[in-house]
From TrEMBL:
The lineage of its organism: Bacteria, Candidatus Harrisoniibacteriota. PANTHER family: MUREIN HYDROLASE ACTIVATOR ENVC (PTHR21666:SF270), PEPTIDASE-RELATED (PTHR21666). Keywords: Coiled coil. Residues 165-254 form the M23ase beta-sheet core domain. The keyword Ion transport does not apply. It comes from Candidatus Harrisonbacteria bacterium CG10_big_fil_rev_8_21_14_0_10_49_15. This is M23ase beta-sheet core domain-containing protein. It comes from the Bacteria. InterPro entries: Cell_wall_metabolism_enzyme, Dup_hybrid_motif, M23ase_b-sheet_dom. GO terms for molecular function: metalloendopeptidase activity. Residues 26-120 form a coiled coil. Pfam families: Peptidase_M23 (PF01551).
Length: 285
C-alpha cells in the first residue's frame, strides 16, 4: 500500500480510530496478495521443472525407440553383407582369405598415406590458431564416455599400427546402435561411407571454435550434409563399419583450417587434417 492510498483512507474516515482500522485491513489484504503471488510463482517454477523433466524423459524414450529401430536395421544390413560375402566365396576358404588380404592391403595403403599427410599438417600447425585448451570446449559424443584407446603414439598404437600413431580416441559404444551426439555447435561438412576400410560410415562437423570433429565407424546417420547442429544433438548411431573389429566410436579432433576430403581408391572421400588430442578439449573423466 503506497502513501497516497494511506492518506486517502485517513481523509475519508470520520475518526482516527476508523482510519487506523481501515488502513490495517488494507495492509492485511496487501500482505495476503503478496503471499499468494509468491505462492503462484513457486508453483510456476515447480511446474516448469516438472515439464522439463517430462520433456527430457519423452526425448529419452524417443531416442531409445529410434535406437532399437537402428539396431534392427543394422542387424539386417549385417546379415545382407554376410550373405553377399558368402555368395562371393561360395564357402571357398582360399577365396575368402584372398578377399580379406585385399581389404587389409587396401587399408594399410590408405592408412599410410593418411598418416603421412596428417604428420606434415601437425608439424605445420599454428598453435595460436587453436582455441585455448579446457574442459568445456567440447562435450562427450557418447552418453556414458568410456575410453578404450587414447590419442597419439601409445604403446598399443606402436604395436597395432604401422604408423605407430592413433589419430583420435576410441570410446566404447556397444552394442551397435548407441546414440552419438555433436560435441559442439556447428555445421555438418560431410556424411560419408568408406565401405569396409578406414572410417566406414562417418560424420564430419565443423564447429565455431576453429575445431572440426569426426565420428567414425557409425551404423546410421541422423543428420545430413550442410545441416546446422547444436551441442548434444543426436547425429547418428554407433556401429562397426569400416576398418573396425568391434562396435566403437573413433573420435577425431582437427584444426579446422587444415581439414580436407581426399579421395582414395577403394574408399572414396576420406577426411584428413591436423589432428589434436581430443582429451585437451573434453571434460575430465
Amino acid at each position: 500500500m503506497d502513501n497516497e492510498n494511506l492518506l486517502m483512507v485517513f481523509l475519508k474516515s470520520e475518526s482516527l480510530a476508523e482510519s487506523i482500522a481501515e488502513a490495517k485491513v488494507l495492509e492485511d489484504i496487501n500482505g495476503t496478495l503478496l503471499k499468494q503471488v509468491a505462492r503462484l510463482q513457486e508453483l510456476r517454477e515447480k511446474l516448469t521443472v516438472e515439464l522439463e523433466q517430462l520433456t527430457g524423459k519423452k526425448q529419452s524414450v524417443e531416442t531409445e525407440q529410434k535406437s532399437l529401430v537402428v539396431k534392427k536395421s543394422v542387424a539386417e544390413d549385417q546379415k545382407s553383407e554376410q550373405d553377399q560375402l558368402f555368395s562371393q566365396t561360395k564357402s571357398e576358404e582360399q577365396k575368402y582369405k584372398e578377399i580379406l588380404d585385399d581389404l587389409e592391403a587396401r587399408q594399410q595403403a590408405i592408412s599410410n598415406d593418411i598418416e603421412a599427410i596428417e604428420a606434415k599438417l601437425r608439424a605445420d600447425q599454428d598453435p595460436n590458431a587453436l582455441p585455448t585448451k579446457g574442459t568445456n570446449v567440447l562435450s562427450w559424443p557418447t552418453a556414458v564416455p568410456y575410453l578404450t584407446q587414447e590419442y597419439g603414439a601409445t604403446a598399443f598404437a606402436q604395436q597395432a599400427y604401422k604408423s605407430g600413431f592413433h589419430n583420435g580416441i576410441d570410446l566404447r559404444a556397444r552394442p551397435v546402435g548407441q546414440p552419438l551426439y555433436a560435441a559442439a555447435d556447428g555445421t555438418v561438412l560431410a556424411t560419408g561411407d568408406n565401405g569396409r576400410v578406414q572410417y566406414g560410415r562417418h560424420v564430419l562437423i565443423k564447429h565455431q571454435n576453429n575445431l572440426t570433429t569426426l565420428y567414425a565407424h557409425m551404423s546410421q546417420f541422423a543428420v545430413t550434409q550442410g545441416q546446422t547442429v547444436a551441442r548434444g544433438q543426436l547425429i547418428g548411431y554407433s556401429g562397426n563399419t569400416g576398418y573396425s573389429t568391434a562396435p566403437h566410436l573413433h573420435f577425431v579432433v582437427y584444426a579446422s583450417p587444415s581439414v580436407l576430403l581426399k579421395s582414395f581408391v577403394g574408399a572414396g572421400l576420406v577426411p584428413v587434417g591436423s589432428t589434436l588430442n581430443p582429451l585437451d578439449y573434453l571434460p575430465a573423466l
